[in-house]
């Protein structure tokens, strides 16, 4: 089985991975402005230091990606049609197979640039098995959102997790660390390393 | 009114200020071993750097302290008698008036070394007014635990808060950031600064 890795998963200092009222024009909801500020220099092609290294690490040796349905789009419940094709336009940045966990499967969706979205109603272990095969010997990245990462953490399927703590407060929203009582039995914090944007990088690995 | 300051309030990376089953022989409960490791060099008289500076800042210009009842001791509900005199022995490290919030008031308790414990059933604003007067022009420190800090944060009474994030996972326990939806309206994160023990210091100040 491929190694399953979480990268660049960012939390506010008060523990929220997303704010309130996630929607089409605010994919991470309200109250989390600046959450991904630490990546902005990398997006501009001017990244340096720990922030840029963490940004780059997220695409090293990755052959497939798993995401939750809300990370694919803002639509909840049954798809009204197949016109929603993801947040990223016609050329998503993945360039490989992306497995979207959903209770509402639909036909696979090949996009430009080598990305194909596959829609599965399956357990975390089942989707990891499929993604492992698609990755062809490389690792699998677990993208998010919080509920999806939690589901894989709860089953001990995540091999390593890179978190970022952003220097902001959200007050309310969606937590990553919720109902993960058994987490410390399987995982430990390897390091907390400062970034260049007032943020901190954390690496969580298996015990 | 005196400035109200929180210092050295330590959370696990997953957001817990205390673990499960807080009790006499484990005041912070289970699952949080190493939570206060960042202070151990200071306690040994060998503190350096950001950790030691943060440790020392907590007693600078403090004239009175406010704590919750659970930070005074492990007894819940009515006092069976007055034999419990705090976690700290006959010479507590405060050296000034300490106001203990409790639904079960008892007579004030003068200890050696200048500490007197006062037991009040009062609102956060009322106890802050009393502690301010006792502080005689200096600041008041808000000690904890989490429920007590939350109560003062919710009313906007805290002027600054120094948090520490320890590189450990607890999985379960008592959170600081819970039900504080309005926090971002009143406060912002000033800085995240690495310590010497794999930890991070955060300063939260008024907007």
Automatic annotation (TrEMBL), chains A, B:
Highest rank taxon of the organism: Bacteria
UniProt lineage: Bacteria, Bacillati, Actinomycetota, Actinomycetes, Pseudonocardiales
Coiled-coil portions: none
Signal peptide boundaries: none
Bacterial bifunctional deaminase-reductase C-terminal domain segment(s): 9-181
Organism, as annotated: Actinomycetospora chibensis
InterPro entries given in the database record: DHFR-like_dom_sf, RibDG_C, Riboflavin_Biosynth_HTPR
Name of this chain's protein: Dihydrofolate reductase family protein
Short name of one Pfam family: RibD_C
């Amino acid at each position: 089985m491929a190694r399953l890795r979480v990268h660049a998963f960012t939390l506010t200092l008060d523990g929220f991975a997303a704010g309130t009222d996630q929607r089409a024009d605010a994919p991470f909801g309200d109250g989390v402005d600046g959450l991904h500020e630490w990546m902005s220099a990398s997006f501009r092609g001017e990244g340096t230091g720990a922030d840029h290294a963490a940004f780059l690490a997220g695409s090293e040796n990755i052959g497939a990606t798993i995401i939750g349905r809300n990370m694919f789009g803002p639509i909840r419940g049954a798809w009204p049609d197949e016109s929603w094709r993801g947040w990223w336009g016609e050329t998503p940045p993945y360039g490989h197979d992306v497995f979207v966990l959903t209770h509402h499967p639909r036909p696979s969706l090949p996009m430009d640039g080598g990305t194909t979205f596959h829609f599965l109603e399956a357990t975390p272990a089942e989707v990891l098995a499929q993604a492992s095969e698609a990755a062809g010997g490389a690792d699998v990245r677990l993208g998010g959102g919080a509920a999806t990462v939690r589901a894989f953490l709860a089953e001990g399927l995540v091999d390593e997790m890179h978190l970022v703590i952003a220097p902001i407060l959200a007050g309310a929203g969606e937590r990553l660390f919720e109902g993960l009582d058994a987490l410390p039995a399987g995982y430990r914090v390897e390091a907390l390393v400062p970034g260049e944007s007032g943020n901190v990088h954390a690496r969580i690995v298996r015990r």
